[in-house]
Amino acid sequence: MPISSLNELVTTLTTRFAKAKRWVNGSLGITKEELLQSMIDVATFSTAYGAPLRSNSTVNVIPFLGTSTQLNDSKLSHFGGLGGGVRLDGAWQLSANGITKHELFQPTAHASNRYETTIALPKGSYGAVTLEVKVVALGQSSGIIRKVYTFDASTATGASNTVQTAQGDIATKIFVGDPDWSGSNIIVPLYERSAVNTAKIYVVEVSISANTTFLAQLLTQTTLLSAVATTTRNAASQNVGLTSGTQMSITSDANGLRLINDVSTPNAFQLYGTNSAGTRGWYDQVALKSVVLKANRNRQTTSYTLALADAWGIVEQDVATANTVTIPPNSSVAFEIDTACTVIQLGAGQVTIVAGAGVTLRTADGKLKLRVQYSSCTMIQRAINDWYVIGDTTS
Fold this sequence. Notes:
By secondary structure, this protein is mostly beta strands. It has helices at about 5-25, 30-50, 170-175, 210-220, 285-290; strands at about 60-65, 70-80, 85-90, 95, 100-105, 115-120, 130-140, 145-150, 155-165, 175, 185-190, 200-210, 230, 250-255, 255-260, 270-275, 280-285, 295-300, 305, 315, 325, 340-345, 350-355, 360, 370, 375-385, 385-390, 395.
């Protein structure tokens, strides 16, 4: 019976060496057969159970640590199915609540068929799962597709799938699809978008973060990618990565804070939050541009009706004869509450502030005319269709 534990080996050798000592002293002790067996036990234990002394038992394999002390053998094995290809077996990389594995998807040369493989994941009450799939092209292709999935392993409800990166010509050749919950496993398809007449090699890296129950179930699978088979999936589907234009970030330089990937239409820029009713802007450049940037100055040569662009701005009336500036109703121009606008009489013609239909003007002693050339007044909307007129005015 081979010795299978270190304690058993030590106990056996101690007993035999005690006999050997009595043998040397002339007493009945160890036989030469027992001494030979002791040497065999040490050698057998070291090679069978002691990882540092064990040589690889299989030719042309890649060794890896199966436990903290034991060397196991990994190897390249062949895909089954029509497409052929190879797969890295036994190559799980473990971390806290996460695993990573690399396998190869290698469709063989073909002229008409498109090939696919699928990633199979456990389905059931395993809780939240974060899955990251990266596909890198080798050989005749280049680039990378990186897609991140978040979902509950028991249901497709609330699942989110986002393509983070899709660059290089791999995006025109391979499509990484969305999870399918219809079967006994969660299936993520990976397939060719077109048929080509040369063999391709794609490295598929799968990283999964989940609870230990999900990971333990996943590790019972002998492979991650399925056998290669022909596909009839939609060839028009294509992974498109997030572009820099959809994201903005803040940095700083000698002049202060600076936006990276600034917008091409500044007046449309808006930072906003959310509430139960939808979005709620809390900084709008159109409404607050005079506070944050500068006032807009609008020169007019005839009577004028305020426009939305005049909010927080200045209207110059450069007119030689008497003229009016009309504040329109909210139904025509929807100014924000507390919007202000200043009117300056630049020309010789006296300016009169006029209320549009349904608009109330509140001013001291009913004075709505600018007093002399270069006089000014400010109109402030205190409520919808309700404005203050304050400044150098007369009757």
